[in-house]
Each structure stands twice: as C-alpha cells, then as structure tokens.
Specification:
The chain has 158 residues and is mostly beta strands. The protein contains one helix and seven strands, in the order βαββββββ. This is Lipoprotein.
Length: 158
C-alpha cells in the first residue's frame, strides 16, 4: 500500500496599507478565537472566519492612515462533539496572527462562552503574513512537503 500526503503550509494574509485588512482580521480572529475556546475546554473540530471591511473611507477604498477602521468578523465552526460554534464581532486592531482588539462574542451550542474586548497577545511577534512582491523583487518561493509512507505486508522476520 502506498500513501502520499501533501502539505502546503502558508498563512496567506492580505494587508491593506493604512488600515485593517479584512483577510488579516479573519485569519487572526480564527487563530486567536480557536486558542481562546480551547483554553476554555472547548474542543474545536474546525472554525472558519470571514471579515468585512467597514465603511471608513468609502466602499472599496483603503482608509487614510488617520482614520479608524473597523472590520466585522463572522466565524462559524463545530466542536468535536458536533456543537455549533459562532464567533462574531468587530475588530479595531489586529497584529497578524497574534491578536485582535474590538468587541467579540463566542457561543458554543447556543451558550455564550466569552464576550471580550480582545483575543491574543498584541505584544507578541506577528505571525506569518503574505505581502505580494513589489516591482523588481523576486516572487517568494513556494515549497511543498510531501511524505510518502510505504507499508509492505508481510514484514520479513516478524
């Protein structure tokens, strides 16, 4: 029997100059909310978050650096035992992969697990961030790790 497993590891996160990026907020909320739920003894099977940019600066426009930006987040998931997870709120600050600040509420199976003004450690080193190359810079290398497992039956000498 031959099994092949491919793993691609990359946190793909977009960043908008001068404001919060909805992808950054979604990615970071996913990571920090999962950690917070696990800390509260909720066994998270899966959680996925989406972010929606607020109206600061108009639709489709990046906000000016002096503007306060708000990103609405909506996370849906499930526990190991099949209970529904919902995390919603607004984020006013995010450090890629490390923390989000704002107003966030999590419910598991219809019961509130937390209502906080932030998740994670904003003094921590930021997590992985993808920034597209600028003109003249080479594109980043993409690596793929492939593990091949071979099982031969019967095993000689056993």
């Amino acid at each position: 029997m031959l099994g092949v497993v491919g793993v691609v590891g990359a946190g793909v996160v977009a960043c908008q100059p001068g404001g919060l990026g909805s992808a950054t907020v979604a990615y970071t909320t996913d990571r920090t909310a999962t950690a917070a739920l696990e800390h509260r003894h909720v066994n998270v099977s899966w959680l996925t978050c989406t972010g929606r940019q607020g109206d600061g600066g108009g639709r489709g426009a990046s906000p000016a650096p002096s503007e306060s930006t708000v990103v609405s987040v909506d996370c849906r998931g499930e526990t190991d035992d099949g209970r529904k997870i919902v995390v919603t709120g607004v984020v006013t600050k995010a450090v890629d992969g490390a923390c989000v600040r704002g107003d966030l509420t999590a419910e598991v199976g219809g019961r509130r697990v937390f209502h906080v003004d932030g998740l994670g450690d904003c003094s921590a080193t930021p997590g992985p961030t993808y920034r597209p190359p600028t003109a003249g810079q080479p594109k980043p290398d993409v690596t793929v790790t492939v593990t091949v497992t071979r099982t031969v039956w019967p095993v000689p000498g056993k």
